[in-house]
């Protein structure tokens, strides 16, 4: 093919040192510009990828912080609600029990765990004007409940989910109280002329106090 200046100079062809004519895209300056453009495009793509990765990482970190903040906020609300429930329950108990001694007796108990439901139900079984002098966690036939000493009776109260057990003995009918105990636990057996009531699993201090107050 005849690559002469007359035929190709007006189309951008250029003559190399070998005397031959070449199209404009093969000129060294154009090749260098193309290489630079390709390198720049590659660098831009790499930077874009890195920026996308950094943005994704930042978004994830931001989401983690938001989740943690939400957890703290939810916990703060839960703590506040629990504190308010406790305050209201305490206020309710004080309002309801100030006239019959249940609250004062509960606060003097050595061990409350396992008897909370029974203690709440004590007032339902009191006579009008009856005063609670002491409460102790105890078991009757291996069933945990509350042993209640009032100014009139000794009473065992156990409140299950669907049933309640209440056994009582008037104090003026108690002839004797038998105490037996180990290093930590104790049992009491109350005797009348025709029956008896034995409770076990008591804290020794509570059992001793009940026996002392019964005075028999």
Globally, the shape reads rod-shaped
Question: What fraction of the residues are assigned to beta strands by DSSP?
Answer: 25-35%
Terminal residue distance: 135 Å
Helix and strand content put the structural class at alpha+beta
User: Count of helical segments?
Assistant: 5
CATH class of the largest domain: Mainly Beta
**Helix-strand string:** HEEHHHEEEEEEEH
* Overall number of structural domains: 2
Q: How would you sum up the major sheet? A: 4 strands, antiparallel
Q: What is the radius of gyration? A: 45 Å
Under the CATH scheme, which architecture of the largest domain would be assigned?
Roll
Low-confidence stretches: 1-7
Helical percent range? 40-55%
β-strand number: 9
Oligomeric composition of the shown chains: single chain
Write out the CATH superfamily name of the largest domain: Pleckstrin-homology domain (PH domain)/Phosphotyrosine-binding domain (PTB)
**Spatial ordering of strands, largest sheet:** 3-4-5-6
CATH fold label of the largest domain: PH-domain like
Task: Please characterize this protein's 3D structure.
The longest helix is centred in the first third of the chain and has 70 residues, at 28-97. A hairpin with a 3-residue loop joins strand 7 and strand 8 (185-191). The protein has helices spanning 5-8, 28-97, 102-107, 116-121, 204-214, and strands spanning 14-15, 21-22, 132-140, 143-150, 153-159, 164-170, 176-181, 185-191, 196-203. Helices cover 45% and strands 26% of the residues. The strands form three sheets. It has a four-stranded antiparallel β-sheet. It has a three-stranded antiparallel β-sheet with strand order 7-8-9. The chain is built from five helices and nine strands; from the N terminus they run αββαααβββββββα. It is rod-shaped and about 140 Å long. It is an alpha+beta fold. Mean pLDDT is 81; it is low at 1-7. The protein has two domains: 1-97; 102-214, Roll (PH-domain like), CATH 2.30.29.30.
